[in-house]
Amino acid sequence: MGNLTSSSGPRIPNYKPGKVYLFTFPSVRCCPTISPFALKVESWLRLNGIEYEAIRSYSHWSKKGQVPFVEVDGREINESSFIIKELAAKFNKLDDLTAEQQAVSSMVEAMVDNHLVWSYSHYRMLGPEAPVFFEMWEGMGAVKRAIASRTIPRNYRSRLEGHGIGRNTVEEIHAMGCDDIRALSGLLGDKQFLMGGEAPTAVDCAVFSHLAQIWYSPLKPPHKAVMETEAKNLGPYLDRLKSIIWPDWDEFCAANVQGSEKLPTEDNKEASSDQQE
């Protein structure tokens, strides 16, 4: 996947104080990124009107070897949930939820981030439409994409085994994710958003980031069939969120397929060591 790089120091040394630099993947034609975790962070940034600049590349990785990550004031924050938690505190964007709502939100986020994702990603990486999935990675280039289509599934199979879900049959792995989708549908009910308010919260960004990978993709996993036939309230729910957070979805996806390897350079003389956390 190219020259994968991480860094012990800030990648944006002449940063603009308070600005978020998001490291993510390029878009694909149907989605702003193939990473649900990167989509979660960027959706949350957009929803909350936080100034950010995205570096869309297959070459930059966090100190933990992950994407997404952000740099703020010269400091890296990684892991999508940690990113949102820390930025919400920094920019005073905490959701106004009861203790019960916060508990439910945490459990739902854990379910989609640590359970549902393994189920539908199994289909994307190892299922019959895996070649179609990898062809979507236009920004990687044909040669690198061909290599990735051979190496990533092999590595992913090992990760599935290590997680434990990979020890089940294919049908069982997919059934687990389909049950998660049914649970999300039941929780949403006839509400506009998961927590029942008039506006989305962070948990909506988390759920959207995963279900969008299923709903707006040309692939046809069993998870999508459940959304079409049983969990019918989820499609309109996703469309509502998309219209609020990503009104430019189609144009954005088309414009950012190639991404960019170039790091931004801010003309900022105020960025100095005493501003770094």
TrEMBL record:
It comes from the Eukaryota. Residues 179-240 form the Metaxin glutathione S-transferase domain. Pfam families: GST_C_6, GST_N_4. SUPFAM superfamilies: GST C-terminal domain-like, Thioredoxin-like. GO terms for cellular component: cytoplasm. One of its GO terms (molecular function) is glutathione transferase activity. Residues 36-129 form the Thioredoxin-like fold domain. InterPro entries: FAX/IsoI-like, Glutathione-S-Trfase_C_sf, Glutathione_S-Trfase, Metaxin_GST, Mito_Protein_Transport_Metaxin, Thioredoxin-like_fold, Thioredoxin-like_sf. PANTHER family: FAILED AXON CONNECTIONS-RELATED, METAXIN RELATED. Belongs to the FAX family. This is Uncharacterized protein.
